[in-house]
Amino acid sequence: MVSSSHEAMHRIFQEDPGVFSRTFRALGLPFDDPVAVTLLPTDLTETRPLERRVDTLLHFDTADPATGFLLAVEAQGKKDPGKLASWTYYLAHLYAKYGIPPLLLVVCQDKNTATWAAEPVDIGPPQWPALTMRPLVLGPTTCPRSPTPPRPPRTSLWRRSPRLHTGKTRTPMPY
Q1: Is the pLDDT score of 159 beyond 80?
Q2: What is the reported pTM?
């Protein structure tokens, strides 16, 4: 049941949208005064089915239950600016659905894609990003090189998938 205090806490911003910028400017966060404000529908339900599929999703249980997490793995072959919003959506959705901290791992075969995917994505105004998505990235530039590479075990991911670590570059990475 919605209470009058609940309504008052958010309706003040509908009645006087400028109170937001005035309040936070007084607190040291420089938000500009609005020139125009439009009240939008508050229902965030999707009106059409959206197909959102992560490439792989794993739940890691650990000895300490507080450190368990979800690992969403995405294989990314090239830069795709639309993926940044999708990845952020995946993480927020996974956290809302399971209540377990999610982590995104992006696996890339080339340096440019890996560099692009590793950039943090801030969502929100520059004064106060509300959400920052920071994926872990595995690719040609993020896998450490060893001067005397050890021989990988027969079951090693690198041994089973040599294209993963060599990618599309002509210089193979040592194991």
Answers
A1: no
A2: 0.72
